[in-house]
Specification:
The protein is α+β, with helices and mostly antiparallel strands and 105 residues long. It has a single domain (5-99), classed as NE0471 N-terminal domain-like. It has helices spanning 29-34, 39-42, 91-100; strands spanning 5-11, 14-19, 24-28, 44-45, 51-52, 65-71, 75-80, 89-90. β4 (44-45) and β5 (51-52) form a beta hairpin. The structure holds zinc ion.
Amino acid sequence: MSPQPLNIQVVGSELAVAWNDGREDYFPLEALRRACPCASCAGEPDVTGQLYRPIVSYNDKSFGITKLQIVGGYALQPVWNDGHSSGLYSWQYLGKLASDLPPPS
Ligand SMILES: [Zn+2]
């Protein structure tokens, strides 16, 4: 069972997540958006299993969050300022992202 978030909020240009195991993670919004797991950002494997990675263009509104929605108690669905909202960041995925981020300097 992966940890559940107790609190999620946007603080400045970061998403702050407090987990129920006592950990806190801060995700820079830009990194979070670039890691959007939806099919139009991250791509989908084709029939041969080859991952097709779409070219995603961002604008100055792409790295801000309008609204945070929790989906089904297992994932975060941010609504970005440019209107994009199809990415579901499961708690597990966020945990993985957190361990991929460089440690705070
Ligand atoms: Zn996306």
